[in-house]
Design a protein that fits this description.
single chain; alpha/beta; six-stranded parallel beta sheet
Length: about 325
């Protein structure tokens, strides 16, 4: 893919750093995808013929159309979430020759494998979307101030759940675990959307001290929640294999992690790490045991090199990768 320029590169590095781990993406309609492909063409016109246009999308569709309209560009595909209707499938077949002008990056091996089945001629590569910089790490001062802000005593256990109850998450398992708790634990729920009735149930649990910050919330509030927690809690439905921005958040900020074994590849990567406690996806009793152990013996924090060891690039490395000349 020729050329460079995300116009400007420094702004892109800052934006990637601001994204942190949040892999995200969005669900979209065919009309919105086609509209975004027109944006690729506009981006090509604005950056010049030598510019590399990067599209961040949850959608896997219309690669060929994007290639024909906008020329060579990079497209991050976070997950496969859409089913194309007849008109879009026809359009995709008509513009298939444009697929070679689009370089698709998948954040995980599982997403790449699914894309390869659906788009066998598409150039594909696995590349993390999330980034981590050494300067992101929380300090002892950050942690002390955060716990004071939430009113959490120094020696009481705290976990944080960041983000909303999206379909691939499993709040019911968290609910079951909290129902089995027999030691005090502070639970910080940050962002949204969240289920109000579920939060009311948690607040009524005898051993749960619930702290909520309804979303959307600024990055400073998210960072404060991680700083106050002894561990970040990630509970997902079994088989979900999209990139977990929350896992990367824990790594880049230096926060211990309690995570379900929903993704075999992620489980293999995290298995054996002393700062990670894995529990079987869907098993509320096992999660309750993990929370009880956290209260008695906190997990160590990930080392400063953990992000690099897991293959998570820095913002500067990501920018350099996206802007270096490449052939589709």
């Amino acid at each position: 893919m020729p050329g460079a320029g995300l116009g400007p590169v420094d702004d892109q590095a800052q934006r990637l750093a601001g994204v942190g781990g949040g892999g995200g993406g969005f669900l979209d309609t065919g009309e919105e995808r086609l509209f975004r492909d027109l944006h690729v063409a506009a981006g090509r016109r604005l950056t010049g013929s030598a510019g590399t246009v990067v599209v961040l999308s949850a959608s896997e569709a219309l690669h060929g159309t994007a290639g024909l309209l906008g020329g060579d560009h990079v497209r991050f595909v976070h997950e496969l979430v859409t089913t194309e209707d007849t008109a879009l499938r026809v359009l995709g077949r008509l513009t298939r020759r444009g697929e070679r002008r689009v370089r698709v990056l998948a954040p995980t091996d599982a997403v790449r494998e699914d894309l390869a089945v659906r788009f066998p001629h598409q150039p594909l590569q696995v590349r993390p979307f999330a980034v981590a910089d050494p300067a992101d790490r929380l300090t002892d001062t950050d942690r002390r101030r955060a716990r004071e802000a939430f009113g959490i005593p120094p020696h009481e256990a705290a976990v944080c759940l960041v983000g909303g109850w999206w379909p691939y998450k499993d709040p019911d398992v968290v609910d079951a675990a909290l129902a089995h708790l027999d030691v005090p634990v502070h639970v910080l729920v940050i962002g949204g959307p969240a289920t109000h009735n579920l939060l009311k149930t948690w607040a009524a649990r005898p051993h749960v001290h619930l702290h909520t910050r309804p979303g959307p919330v600024p990055e400073t509030a998210v960072r404060q929640a991680y700083a106050a927690a002894d561990a970040a809690l990630v509970s997902r439905q079994s088989g979900v294999a999209k990139e977990s921005g929350l896992v990367v958040d824990a790594v880049r900020l230096g926060v211990s992690l309690i995570v379900s074994d929903h993704d075999p590849h992620l489980t293999k990567v995290l298995g054996g790490q002393d700062w990670v406690r894995l529990f079987p996806a869907g098993d509320g009793t096992a999660l309750a045991d993990a929370l009880r152990d956290l209260a008695w013996s906190p997990l160590p924090r990930p080392a400063a090199c953990a992000a690099a060891d897991l293959g998570v690039p820095t913002a500067a490395e990501q920018t350099a990768f996206l802007t270096e000349p490449k052939e589709c």
